[in-house]
Amino acid sequence: MSEKEVKILSLFENIEQGSKAAFDELFMLYHHKLLSLAKQYIKNKEGAEEITSELFVKLWLKRHNLSQVINPEVYLFISIKNACLNLIRSEKKRNSIFSLSPPIEEPTNQENSGMADQELYNFLDEAVAGLPEQRRIIFILIKEDGLKTKAVAEIMGISVRTVENQLYKAVKSLADTLSLYLGYHPQNRKKPSVASQWLLSFFF
Prior knowledge:
single chain, mainly alpha, Rna Polymerase Sigma Factor, Chain: A, 9 helices
């Protein structure tokens, strides 16, 4: 069991005992990640925020049953995904609430990134947004949120092999698309800039 898994299990145990401090820590660790996933399904920002907030409220209200959760992290992501899908099914105009332009958090501590770097971030945003929905979500969960393929498979309700195949296709598609902008293939060459080094982290 990884250090992260031990940490979140400990938080769940403390929350079950009524620890508000543990609940606040869990909120700080996962609110942004869960909100980001909600935005992949829900186009309406307020709707995604409401779903995420409701999840934490329900978590606190039902804290006495948290000891039954075997994998807390996967539980949180599956819960937010199911809440989003339930909302989508309840809406008559389903297409109007799918996210067409998911946000990609820009790396911090880049005070002098410059116009070229900003353009690169924007170009990557558009490239990721253009991926098929399942492929896009898998890419973000693994590359942005740092989840393992097995966890993503559980969250998405698909096989590990499918996750691996979709991630490979996502990375290849993004690399090919970005090569048109960069003038070189990001998997074949490193460029000595902060933005490029950050970009390369998505492909290795």
